[in-house]
Design a protein that fits this description.
This protein is mainly alpha-helical. It contains five helices and no strands.
C-alpha cells in the first residue's frame, strides 16, 4: 500500500517536473513570453525564472528522495516466483544417472606390432 502511494507521488512529481522544465527558457523569456511579454503582467520575467528554477530544484530533490524511499518500501517478504520462473517447467535438482559410454572394438586404437620395433 505504501509502495503504491509512493509510486503515484513519483509519477505526479515527474509530470510537474516536466512542465516546470518545459516552461523555462534558456534566454529568459519562457513563461513570460508565453503570457504576452507585456510589462503590465503581475509577475516579471525575472521572478518567473526564479520560481521555475526553484520549483525545478525542489521537484528534482523530491523525485530523488522518493525513489530511494520507494526502494526501501518494497515488500521483500512476499517474494514469490517471477513471471519467467512460473512459465518454466520444473527442473529436477537430482543428478541424472549418466552411463559411461561404451567402446566398441572399432573405436579402440589398433595395436601394431611395428610400433615397438620402430622405437629401437
Amino acid at each position: 500500500m505504501l509502495y503504491t502511494i509512493i509510486v503515484v507521488l513519483i509519477a505526479l512529481i515527474c509530470l510537474f517536473l516536466t512542465l516546470a522544465v518545459l516552461l523555462q527558457s534558456g534566454d529568459g523569456n519562457g513563461m513570460s513570453a508565453m503570457a504576452g511579454g507585456s510589462s503590465s503582467q503581475m509577475m516579471g520575467s525575472r521572478r518567473t525564472s526564479d520560481i521555475l528554477s526553484k520549483s525545478t530544484t525542489v521537484l528534482g530533490a523530491a523525485f530523488l528522495i522518493l525513489c530511494v524511499v520507494a526502494n526501501f518500501a518494497i515488500d521483500k517478504q512476499d517474494v514469490g516466483r517471477s513471471a519467467v520462473q512460473s512459465t518454466m517447467p520444473a527442473m529436477n535438482t537430482a543428478p541424472a544417472d549418466i552411463a559411461a559410454p561404451s567402446q566398441s572394438e572399432s573405436a579402440l586404437p589398433a595395436e601394431d606390432g611395428n610400433k615397438e620395433s620402430s622405437d629401437n
